[in-house]
Amino acid sequence: MTLPKAKINNPIYQPDISIEIGDSKSVLSTFPDEHFQSCITSPPYWGLRDYGVSEQIGAETTVDEYIENLVNVFREVRRTLKDNGTLWLNIGDSYTSGGRTWRDPDKKNAARGMSYRAPTPEGLKPKDLIGVPWKIAFALQADGWYLRSDIVWYKPNCQPESVKDRPTRSHEYIFLFSKNEKYFYDHEAIKEPTACGKKLRNKRTVWSINTEPFRDAHFAVFPTELVKSCMIASSSPDDLILDPFLGSGTVAQVAIEQSRQCVGIELNNDYADIAKKRIAQINRDLI
C-alpha cells in the first residue's frame, strides 16, 4: 500500500525528513533489513490517553495485549536496524483504574479525558502501580533485544499530583537496547561534568531534564535535550534515525539540528500535521 509521505528539507543541512502516515508495524514492514542506525521513541502509555484513533496502541483492554503489540512493533524495528544499531525507549508507568470506567478531561491536557478505562489487570489490586516499563523491558529482552541500561529521567518540573497517600511521581524510564552484543555507542559525545565542574566523566544513569511545553500538542512531548543525548551517543552525522511513534516531531527536530536524517511514523493525521508544521518552522528558524 502506498502511504502518504511528507519531506521537508533544511536549506542548510539538507536532511531527508520523511513522515509516514499509518500503523507502525505495517509501515515498517515496507522497509528493508538493516536500514536505520538508531531508533529513539516514546510510544503511547497504556491506559493513560485517548488519542482518538482506531487501533491505537495504549487503548488495549489488557496490559498483556499492550505489551504484545509493542513487542511486535519493536521486532520490526530490530529487523530494520543496522547490526550495530540501538533502540532508546522512553516509557512511563500507570496505576490500575480502581474500577473506574472513564476520566474527565484536564484543561491543560485534553487527551487526558477518556471514555474508557481498562479493567484492573489480573493479579493486581485497585491502586496498584502496574510496573509497565519493566514488563515491556523484560518482554523485549525475551524477544531477542540486549537490555543494556535503564536510565531514570528525573523531571525537576514534574506535573503536580493531588495524591496524599504516596510520593508525587517525578521520573520516567528510558531503556537502552541493542540489536547485538556489540553496537555503536559514542560515550565521548555525551560525557557530563564532574561535581567540581572542571572535568568530564562517563554519563550516569540519572538524567535531570525539565519537561518542555509545546503549545500545538495536547499531549506530552519528548524534551529535545533528552533526545539529543540519545541521538549523538548512538549515531553519526548523516545517519538515518527512526521514530515509529513520531507524535509532535521532536525526534525529527533534533535530527535536523544534529545533521541526521529521520523517518517518523505517525498513525494520527492531526499529529502528523503538527510535526510537519514544527519541522517547517525549524527550517525557517535555521535560515
Structural notes for this entry:
By secondary structure, the protein is an alpha/beta fold. The protein has a single domain (5-286), classed as Vaccinia Virus protein VP39 (Rossmann fold), CATH 3.40.50. It has six helices and eleven strands. Strands 1-2-11-10-3-4-6-5-9 form a nine-stranded mixed beta sheet. Strands 7-8 form a two-stranded antiparallel sheet. Strand 3, helix 2 (63-80) and strand 4 form a beta-alpha-beta unit. Helix 5 (250-257) packs parallel to helix 6 (269-286). 34% of the residues are buried.
Please describe the structure with a list of short key phrases separated by commas or semicolons.
single chain; 287 residues; alpha/beta; Rossmann fold; two-stranded antiparallel sheet; 6 helices; disordered N terminus
Helix fraction by DSSP (H/I, runs of at least 4): 10-25%
Terminal CA distance: 36 Å
> Helix and strand succession?
EEHEHEHEEEEEHEHEH
CATH architecture: 3-Layer(aba) Sandwich
Number of helices: 6
Secondary structure tally: strands: 11
How many structural domains in the coordinates?
A: 1
Largest sheet: 9 strands, mixed
Write down the overall mean pLDDT.
86
Radius of gyration: 19 Å
How much of the sequence lies in strands comes to 15-25%
| CATH top level class name | Alpha Beta
CATH superfamily: Vaccinia Virus protein VP39
User: Biggest sheet: strands side by side, in what order?
Assistant: 1-2-11-10-3-4-6-5-9
The CATH topology assignment is Rossmann fold
Note poorly predicted spans: 1-12
